[in-house]
Structure formats: structure tokens, C-alpha cells
Amino acid sequence: MMEVASVLYGREDIRRRVDELGHTITGDYVGREPVMVSILKGGAMFLADLMRAVDLPLETHFMAISRYGDAEESLGRVQILLDLETDVTDRHVIVVEDIVDTGLTSRYLLQVLRRRAPASLEMCTLLDKSARRIVPLSPRYVGFDCPDRFVVGYGLDFADRYRNLPDIHQVHDLPAFRADPDALMPLLTGARAA
Ligand code: IMP
Ligand code: MG
Q: Which ligand is closest in space to the CA of residue 137?
């Protein structure tokens, strides 16, 4: 029987790659104090690790957004649920995302932030599902170019669950997983400790 999911990026691969991204960002922003904007909730875990890999003074702020339904049906309509409580005019802004999929959410977000006239605006995403892109968007910093699979763990969720899995798992049978979202519970019910 086919497994519902398997590890795509293990915690050690993630740690190494996040450290590399931190190094690169440090080199690129030397002499500046970037503002890292993390998108709740998925981007929070990545931000927590990434910021500690950046050897520069920096600020972190959060935004929360929601998309209406599926990308295809909502045509990228996005609502800001939580906005920045700081002015990013003339600041060097780095948007920290868990994953860029169709690109619709990120495009909207970048438009909103660009109107606030930052000195620079870049995006850092842990995963880039570039094969699924609907709108052209190339994040400056990418952790992994992710295959066209549904993934959970390390901040990524299915219906708000599984964010606390330390590894990133790819779902092999999405219809089966949708029908039974508990299918990955064995990964979270003490099986790791056993
Ligand atoms: P986009 O607007 O299609 O680029 O969607 C980006 C958002 O969709 C991400 O911030 C995630 O919340 C969600 N998303 C896209 N692909 C996945 C996935 O494979 N697993 C979990 N969430 C995903
Ligand atoms: Mg999500």
C-alpha cells in the first residue's frame, strides 16, 4: 500500500539551507538594517530560524492575510487581517514566506508594500513551487525549488494542523488525505518518541 506521505526535506537539510540563506542575506545587506516581514502563520517558524542565521541588526514584523477560496476561483483576491504596525518607507524590506505556489498571494502583498515606498523590497521563501505559478514572480531568495506536491510541516499546514512537524512531508495521495486529514496523525502521537 502506498504511504500517504513521506519526508521531502528533513530537519537537517532545512537547517543547513536556512543557515546558507542567512549567510547570503547577511552579505547582501551588510551596513543596512533590514525589516523582515513574516506572513502568519506559515512563515513564522521559518522566520524564527532565519533571523538567527542573519548576523546583522534587523527588525521583525508580522502580517496576516487570507485568500478567498482556491487561487483559480478567487483570482488572487486577498484580505489583510493584520497589518504592520511600523512604517516601512525608506526601509529595506524582506518578505519572509513559507511557500510561493501560484504567486497570487505574494503578488498582492508585494503590491501593497511597494506603495509604501520602501528603499528596497525582496522576498525570501523557504519553498518555491515554481511549476504552479500563475503570475510571474521570482523571489530573490529561495530555500528549495519544491516539486508540485502538497507539503506539510515546518510551518506548513493542512487546515491549520501539522505545522509542528519538524520535517517537511510531501503528500502522495492528496484525495485520500483530504478524505482523511487524520492520516498523518501517527507522525504526531508519540510515534517519534517511540
Ligand atoms: P499562492 O498565493 O498560491 O502562492 O499561495 C501561497 C499560500 O498557499 C501559502 O502561503 C500557503 O499558505 C498555501 N500553500 C500553497 N501550497 C501549499 C502546500 O503545499 N502546503 C501547505 N500550504 C500551501
Ligand atoms: Mg496555509
A: 1
Which residues line the pocket of ligand 1, CB cutoff 6 A? 42, 71, 97-106, 150-152, 156-157
Of the candidates 159, 71, 63, the one whose C-alpha atom is nearest the C-alpha of residue 110 is 63
**C-alpha–C-alpha distance, residues 68 and 70, integer Å:** 7
Tell me whether residue 101 is one of the annotated catalytic residues.
Answer: yes
Residues forming beta bridges with residue 34, ordered by sequence position: none
**Cα angle vertex 67, ends 73, 125, to 5°?**
110
Residues 48/18, Cβ–Cβ less than 8 Å: no
Q: Do residues 156 and 167 make contact, with C-beta atoms less than 8 angstroms apart?
A: no
Alpha carbon of 98 to ligand 1 centroid (Å): 8
**Which residue is catalytic, options 49, 98, 101, 167?**
101
Encode pLDDT of 48-102 as tens digits: 999 999 999 999 999 999 877 655 555 667 889 999 999 999 999 999 999 999 9
Whether this prediction's pTM lies above 0.85 is answered by yes
Ligand 2: distance of its center to the CA of 41 in Å? 7
